[in-house]
Every structure is written in structure tokens, then in C-alpha cells.
Amino acid sequence: MKDLNIYFRQKRYIMYLITTIIIMGLPFITINNNQIFLLSFDKKQLHILGVVFDMQELYLMPFLLIMLFVGIFLLTTLAGRAWCGWACPHTIFRVIYRDIIETKILKLRKSIDNKQKNPDLSLWQNKIKKVIGVFIWAFLSFIAASNFLLYFVPPSDFFSYLADYNNHKILLGFIIAIATFLTLEIIFVQENFCIYVCPYCRVQSVLYDNDTKTVIYDTNRGSKVYDANGVALSKKEINGECIDCHKCVRVCPTHIDIRKGLQLECINCLECADACSSVMGKLGKISLVRWSSTNSMKTNSQVKYFRGKTIGYILVIIIALSTAVFLSFNKSTMLLNINRSSEAYKILENGEIENHYLMLFQNTDNKAHKFYFRITDNDNIKIRQPKEEFEIKAGGKIRKRVYLYTLENHNTESNDKIIPITIEAYATDDENIKITKKSIFVYPQQ
User: Fold this and answer.
1) The overall pTM is greater than 0.70
2) pLDDT tens across 265-289, in order?
3) Contact yes or no for 438/404 (Cβ under 8 A)
4) pLDDT at 330
5) Cα-atom radius of gyration of the chain, to the nearest Å?
6) How, if at all, do strands 37-40 and 45-48 pair?
7) Closest Cα to residue 34, out of 396, 366, 369, 433?
8) How would DSSP label each residue in 346-411?
9) What pLDDT is recorded for position 119?
10) Which helix (DSSP H) or strand (DSSP E) does residue 250 occupy?
11) Taking all residues of the chain, what is their mean pLDDT, rounded to a whole number?
């Protein structure tokens, strides 16, 4: 049974490594020269799996947010705060600083199995080690802050901006601010962030049910250790398998006693289950702390994952994902904005009626195209300027002053007449790329 302790810890560390590789590596992965995920405020673009969406195409965002939040609800309903204990960057950062830097490298802590006792800083040697640890983590925080910003600034731009930091002081300021926050928060705030700051621990209380898989102390075998008021019972009153060794308490990063029952501070890291396994394994018994559900513990059955609530969450995610995929495959490869001049019209000496527009053409494809446009529903309205097609680079934009004119004046009314027109912009080198927009053409009064 002692191997169970190694099993949980090793599995958790493997998950930390996988999560770190994914988070650090995603900004450098591209599809068709577009990012896997990028929310660029500079270029006003959203990249998802190599598909680029302009600000005008952010109709996709609501579906992504639905999947994010419903996914959190689903995960919490199924496995409690498994995210917090197994993949949260804050937990990973604390493990790196506390267990690796302070314990393994600097030897400030005697063991990673005792997280309740802080390093003794009364010794000058330990003070020096503490300062060294702060500098090491500050450097790692700078790397983490830079990696975070790569989700908003693509690597190709980020490193060139960083090299020219005098002209990109805002970016440098963000890096310093985030790195400073991470340094102070991980070293001084510690797990208090999980307990008092992170909203997730408050959300979980309304998402749990009796079938949620979480860390549970088996009172049937170990007996109650606390009374109804939370007061510890004496060892004589504990009539179960629990030997009150407090190993599960000492190893807890959020400083709780799992034997009191489900608590908001528990992050499902299963450190207590590992500690209890190491003790009970020597007695030839399984751990008193298990990753199970309340109903499963009572009935000694398997955890029930598929139930009405979880099936409902899964259906919502599938619908949102299907809609997002459908919209992404049907996104336009060009965008067109039309702003009509404040001047109603202009009457030229030859009798022509001219209307002025400012059009913004945008190529959202991943390669350059040549574009032009036409009036599709009024043959009497012609294009004076621009006279020729124009090229737009991949992801580029071009503003064009557009002059439309006509010799025909069908207005017999005493007021100016507004005629709806349809403008179709298209790529001259690809007949599949086109978009139509509605606008107006104003005729003067007769």
C-alpha cells in the first residue's frame, strides 16, 4: 500500500509537467502562419487553431466563453477542485518555489511532507538562502510573465518589441508588473490566494453534489475525530483505525484537517491521501482519505459520473462547440466597412451627380489578394474612383476614397431622394471571396 503514496505524487508531478509544456509551448505553435491561440489587442484579432477572426467577427467569443464556464461547471461537478490541485498555474508555481527551490535546492525546509512549518529565518544562513530563493523565483516570474503576454502578442512581434523596449515601454511595464505580482504573491501570499482571493473556491460550493468526486475522510473506518462543533476529540474517544498521527494535516498546503469534512480550502491535491496511504500501508490497510464521492463512500460503490446535471453540461458544451466550428468554417475571408461622406451629394458641371464614400477593405485570408467592387442593383450608378483593382496583403487593411456618379436623375420630388444600393466587393483572383454591403445613393431634388 505504500506505493499508493508514490503513485499520486508522481502522477500529479507528471500532470504539472504536461500543463507547463502546453502553456509554455502553445504560443510558438502556428497553423498557416497563424497562432493556435492569440488575442491580439494591437492587431484587433483573435486566433483559434490557425483561424483568424477580426474584431468584427467576434461573434465567436460568446460561444467560447460558454464552453469555458460550462466546462468549469462540468469539471467541478465531476471532480471538485481537481483543476486547482492538478493543473492550476498557481499550484504549480508554489510547488516549484516551495518544494523545489526552498526544499530541494536551498534546503530551507527539511521535507516536502511538512508544509506547516515555515523556514527558520532567525539564522543568517537561512536569510541569505531566502534572498537567493527570492531572486531565483523573480527570474522565473519574469519568464512566466513573458509567456503569459505571448497569448496577446505573437512571439515574432514580442521579441522584437522587447529588443526595442524604449519604443515599447507599455509592454515592458506589463512584464515587470506581472512578474512583480507573481513574485510577491507566490512567496508571501502563498495558499492564502486559493483560500481568500480565488473566486473558484466560492463557486464550487454551489456546484458540488453527493456524487462529486472529491477528497473524503472515511469516518466509518477511521471514526470521527472532531465533534459537531469542530472541537477535537481525545484519543480515547477516537474508536477507529485513525491513529491521529497528523501526517495528513502537516502535508496539507492549505493548512486544513481533512478529517473535519469537506472544506472550501481543499484543492484536491491529494497530499493527505498520499500521507495516509504511507501510514496505513504499513498496517496492511488502504488509506482512510480517499478520492471518492459521498454517495460512493456510503454505498461502497463506484462514483456516478453520468447524471442529469453532468449530461446537461456536456450537451451545452457540444452545442456551443458545434456552433463555433460551424461559424469558423463559414467565416468571411474579407470584410468591408462603408462610411458615407457627410456631404449629401455633389453636382458637377456636366450634370453628373456624385456621392462620396470612405470604404475600409480588409483581407482576412492567409495570403494576399487583389480586390475590386461593383454596384449590383443599379446599372445607372458608376464607379469613378478607384478605377483599378488593388492588392491587400494577408491580414491587411486598405482605406479607399470611393466616388460614385450617375447622369440619371429620376427624382421628381421636391426633396432629396435616397436610393438603396448594394455594393459587392470581391477578389479578382478568387471568385469564392466576396461580400455584399448595403448603402445609399442620394439624388438631389428636381
Assistant:
1) yes
2) 888 889 999 899 888 888 888 889 9
3) no
4) 67
5) 32
6) antiparallel
7) 366
8) EE-TTS-EEEEEEEEEEE-SSS-EEEEEEESS-TT-EEEE--S-EEE-TT-EEEEEEEEEES----
9) 84
10) helix 247-250
11) 86
Q: 438 is written with which cell numbers?
A: 448595403
Residue for cell digits 450537451? 315
Helix residue ranges, H only, 185-307: 192, 200-207, 219-222, 247-250, 271-282, 294-299
What is the identity of the amino acid at 356?
H
Quote the CA–CA distance of 99 and 111 in Å, as a whole number.
8
> 386-392: which pairs have CB atoms within 8 A and are 24 or more residues apart?
389/428, 390/361, 392/361, 392/362, 392/363, 392/368
Q: Would you call the peptide bond into 62 cis, given omega within 30 degrees of 0 as the criterion?
A: no
44, 49, 50, 55: CA torsion to nearest 10: -20
d(CA 354, CA 374): 16
Contact 392, 361 (CB under 8 A): yes
Range among 26-40, 90-104, 314-328, 366-380 with highest mean pLDDT value: 90-104
Of 173, 272, 288, nearest to 223 by C-alpha is: 288
Domain boundaries, the chain: 14-206, 334-443
Which pLDDT belongs to residue 105?
93
Q: What percent of the chain has pLDDT over 90?
A: 33
In the structure grid, which three cell numbers stand for residue 288, read together?
482512510
Reading the block at residue 359, the C-alpha cell is 470604404
* Interaxial angle between packed helices 61-79 and 308-329, expressed in degrees from 0 to 180 and rounded to the nearest 10: 160
pLDDT of res. 4: 43
- The topology (CATH level 3) of 334-443 is Immunoglobulin-like (2.60.40)
Which pLDDT tens digit goes with each residue over 347-367? 888 888 899 999 999 888 778
Q: Which residues pair with 436 in a beta bridge?
A: 424
Predicted confidence at residue 302, as pLDDT, reads 86
Q: Which of 430, 361, 311, 331 is nearest to 70 (CA)?
A: 311
Residue 418 in grid coordinates? 435616397
* Residue 371, C-alpha cell as written in the block: 480586390
Q: How many CB atoms lie within 10 A of CB 440?
A: 13
Q: Name the β-bridge partners of 215.
A: 291
